Amino acid sequence: MLSGIEISNSFATIDHLQTKLSHRQRGLTRDMDDLFKSIFKGAALILVGICLNASLRAQDVVDGIAAIVNDSVITFSQVKQQVDRQEQALRDALRDNPDEMVKRVKALRLEALNALIERELILQEFKKQGFDLPDRYVEARLRETIEQQFDGNRAAFIKTLEAQGLSMQEFREDMKKT
């Protein structure tokens, strides 16, 4: 049998071991807390990055199909390109009359869409007959694109082409196809 002293020493050893274990558990708990905080911060940063990236892409991806002409697509951004300046002028002029502004902007966009559809039909028929677009037409469209989309800044247009990995010649060839 164990004597009272041995039992007391056993309890002291058990208490000492429990205290040591408790300190280790607290240390592990702190380490785990730090680990979870680091993981949480990392996940939060990744989530913020994903959200920012998605919101930036959302601005580019809001385009959709406005019309399909045989095998060609006309997008909303193409329609908007056609009417951008006129639409802004309408918005400025009719700021105090939102109902009229909405009505006129819709009519302007519809008119632009119809013009794009008509142009596409003419181009398709032209190609169907075996004709090729004259260079002067491509150059006129090129000047129109630079004027409308880049406020006439040819250098900005060329930089944009380079950023997209296109040369001016490749862009002209693409214009001939479309």
Automatic annotation (TrEMBL):
Organism listed in the record: Geitlerinema calcuttense NRMC-F 0142
InterPro entries linked: OMP_Chaperone_SurA (IPR050280), Trigger_fact/SurA_dom_sf (IPR027304)
Source organism, top-level taxon: Bacteria
Parts of the chain that traverse the membrane: none
Protein name: SurA N-terminal domain-containing protein
Any one Pfam family match given in the protein's UniProt record, by short name: SurA_N_3
Classification via Gene3D superfamilies: Porin chaperone SurA, peptide-binding domain (1.10.4030.10)
Keywords: Signal
